[in-house]
Amino acid sequence: MAQITVQTSEEEQLRVLKVLVDLRGTVTPVSTIAKLAGLKQSRTRYVLMDLIDQGKVSREATRAFNKHYVRYSYHVHQI
Known about the structure:
By secondary structure, this protein is of the alpha+beta class.
């Protein structure tokens, strides 16, 4: 099966990091993070995954409505 790799820019990552710093670990949907960062939701999801993979951000499951609908809080470790 083919594997798709999506590259995110450093500018996008910095925009999302700034929003996460302002939110200070509150439970926030990706749609709100995307709106505040000025990005699309799908793009914000890729940026968040890149930041988690780089160890700059961690996420904590806070509300699990069901196995497909989970809310997270994000904690910034480094900028």
